[in-house]
Amino acid sequence: MPDLRDHTIAERQTKMNDSFVEHANHQEATRAIQRFHKPVEGGLHGRGSICALIGESRPGKTYGASEILRHNEAQIGADGIKRLKHDPTPTELAKEEADQKDRERRWKRSGWRPAPASSFTRHWRQWDYTPTGKVTFEFDIFLRSSSSIRRSFKDAKIQRLENMASEIGIAMAVLSEAKREDQICQEQERKRAMDIEERRLVALRRHHVHNRRLESLERVAARFEKRDRLKTHVKFLSREKGTSLPPRTAKDKEWLENELGKAELAVTVDGVEGLFESEALFASDEEQGFDPPHCTAPHRTAAGSSNRSNTKRINGAP
Question: In degrees, to the nearest 5, what angle opens at C-alpha 316 toward C-alphas 311 and 318?
Fold first, then answer.
């Protein structure tokens, strides 16, 4: 602590307000800022991110940031990042020379030589990027509409970012309103898509039920056809031989009469009702077995148009 006895009260008060005592929290914050600035010790500085040091009032946040800035002065150039051709270091040149010698030995053993235009990977980067100190503020917001809204603000020869606070605020308000409208339009489109999908599923369900009913009616018609064939056969045997039938034919007639009785029961109202009940038809559960496709729209394929034919059948369903 400096001797302040010869200073005025105001000077002593200023000195006391500006004095800083080193402590553990300040050291930890300084190290955190340094790690953010250079993530890898001895490597390049980090780019494209903003660090925010949040904490209690007057624990030394400003002193920590100032200490980092004293060792890393800002550089000002024409653009945000200055690109310079990289000059290889002695270590990189030695590594390249050793690899070239190794390649020469392998070529000598194999008798193969590369073409003159062949190139090999260098052990150093092509460019060095140096920050210039210019700042860019940009809104990273995706909008399907209102693409003409200004989103980027950056330092230039005349304008400075710190003097564009009002323009940035206006752009933030306009973008917020555009984002809200975009979300409303997106929600409306989602509802329309859901409505289209629901109508498509209803048509698919009707088509599925229609096909199941047709298949069941085919089985009912097959029952009538079987009953008529059995009845015709029994009448033929009765008319042809009367009651004096050979043993095998008599047994055949007895079996046919038994089957005819079953066929007669199958084509009665109760028999048809039992068929419809066993197959869950003409009731609230007749949609069973319906497996809707996962796609929401017919896709065109290079091989053919199977989806178009499916659509045609659905439209033709009752």
Answer: 125
Two tokens at 92? 């990189």
- What is the CA 121 to chain-centroid distance, rounded? 36
Residue type, 109: R
Contacts with 275 (C-beta within 8 Å, 6 or more apart), sequence order: 216, 219, 220, 223, 266
Residues 6+ positions from 317 with CB-CB distance below 8 Å: 203, 206, 207, 210
**In this predicted structure, what is the pLDDT of residue 318?**
38
Half-sphere exposure of residue 257, counting CA atoms within 13 Å on the CB side?
10
Cα-based distances in Å from 238 to 177, 261, 270: 92, 16, 29
Of 123, 126, 134, 37, which Cα lies nearest the Cα of 84? 126
Judge contact between 33 and 53, C-beta under 8 A: yes
Q: Which helix (H) or strand (E) holds 70?
A: helix 61-71
| 12-50 tens-digit pLDDT | 777 667 666 677 777 777 777 777 777 677 666 666 566
Identify whether the C-beta of residue 263 lies closer than 8 Å to the C-beta of residue 226.
Answer: yes
The CA–CA distances, whole Å, from 297 to 191, 198, 200, 291 equal 15, 12, 9, 16
- Residue 131 CA to residue 83 CA, distance in Å, equals 9
Is 43 exposed, middle or buried, given 0-12, 13-18 or 19+ CB atoms closer than 10 A? exposed
Q: Which stretch of DSSP H or E encloses residue 197? A: helix 165-241
Q: CB-based contacts of 233: which residues, under 8 Å, 6+ apart?
A: 256
d(CA 76, CA 155): 11
120: closest CA among 144, 94, 96, 142?
A: 96
For the chain (318 residues), the mean pLDDT of every run of 10, in chain order, is: 66 70 74 75 64 67 73 53 76 85 81 58 72 76 74 81 85 87 90 93 90 90 91 82 74 88 90 88 82 57 39 37
